[in-house]
Write a structure and sequence with these properties.
Elements: H1 20-35, H2 49-62, H3 67-78, H4 82-94, H5 99-123, H6 148-161, H7 169-186, H8 192-214
Helix pairs in contact: 1-5, 3-7, 4-5, 5-6, 5-8, 6-7, 6-8, 7-8
Length: 215
């Protein structure tokens, strides 16, 4: 420990910089705590027949194909937005000159995921459960609308896309969002409107995060 001599100037402590993972964890904890206020019990309402038919049509094409394990891998990556949060934390650690922008973008993804959880618990739409629909993976909740995977993926594509060299947000959205959205139908865990609403919510949160980051 350094010794302070009378009359000597006391050095100012170096500013502490919050680790990216800690920021992500704190934001995610707050939004999940807010969502816990609303119960998770689904409202038993019948799914629109057109949505069931569309979901079943997708599965008739994809069942018993290599798309199932691929979709399962994408599902694990997107669970709780952890894959995207890890990517944001890695970007913040590797790209020191733009660390603040990476932190803001990563926080935006965490908020987008939390917003989807909150909306789920307000709408309380049950997940697909129909004889024509095969569910290929477990889910963290019984609620379907909106798709949290589609929400966080859209937000990550918009926010990280502009930070990855040569990749624009629009290009990243076009490359990343459709496969993730379709994978939720392939696995039988969401209706088409779930993934469309999730993408819209993710885009809205990302737009706000961009504007806030510029300030």
């Amino acid at each position: 420990m350094p010794i302070h001599r009378p009359g000597a100037a006391v050095p100012e402590p170096a500013p502490l910089e919050a680790p990216p993972v800690a920021v992500d964890s704190a934001v995610s904890t707050v939004v999940h705590a807010a969502a816990e206020i609303v119960p998770e019990t689904p409202v038993e309402i019948p799914a629109p027949p057109a949505e069931v038919r569309a979901l079943a049509a997708v599965q008739r094409i994809t069942n018993d194909t290599p798309l199932i394990p691929v979709a399962k891998g994408m599902s694990r990556f997107g669970d709780h937005a952890l894959g995207w949060l890890a990517l944001g934390a890695l970007g913040a650690l590797a790209d020191r000159p733009r660390r603040r922008r990476w932190l803001v973008a990563t926080a935006g993804v965490a908020v987008a995921h939390g917003a989807s959880v909150a909306v789920k618990r307000v709408v309380r739409r049950p997940r697909p459960e129909h004889p024509d629909v095969v569910v290929h993976c477990a889910t963290p909740s019984r609620l379907s609308f909106p798709s949290a995977h589609a929400t966080s993926t859209t937000a990550a594509a918009m926010l990280f896309g502009t930070l990855l060299g040569g990749v624009g947000g629009g290009v990243a959205v076009a490359v990343l969002v459709p496969p993730m959205a379709v994978s939720r139908l392939v696995l039988g865990v969401h209706y088409p409107t779930d993934v469309v609403a999730g993408a819209g919510l993710g885009a809205a949160v990302a737009t706000v995060a961009r504007r806030w980051g510029k300030r």
